[in-house]
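Progress against Task 2.4 (sequence-to-structure conversion) is shown through the following example record, which the project officer requested during the mid-term review.
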Amino acid sequence: MEHEILLDRLRVTFDLRGQVLDWIHSFVSNRTQSMSFAGARSIYSLWRTTRLSVLGPLLFILYAADVIAIAHRYGCQVHSYADDTQLYFHDKAELCERRLPRFTECIAATEIDN
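Structure tokens generated for the chain above:
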């Protein structure tokens, strides 16, 4: 997850400001976590630390919220769970070919907006 994109989403989409945004910025920035096992020590990256936290899944949902809104604008259905998001549509077989260009536009729009 790009932390600057997350912070921007929180500001723009969810209108978070001030101390709350500062706290989240502190939470996702300059963090490491270490684990020691049998005398060996490993240090996890910033992304992995955030992801392993209790807030990780919630922050990802907020990060991906615009993708869900964009998909709905294009008539796509969305399933999201943890760090996985699936865009899809369902229709009669004879109508699927007609829907594919709109689906492709949706994917392009989510890439641009993210």
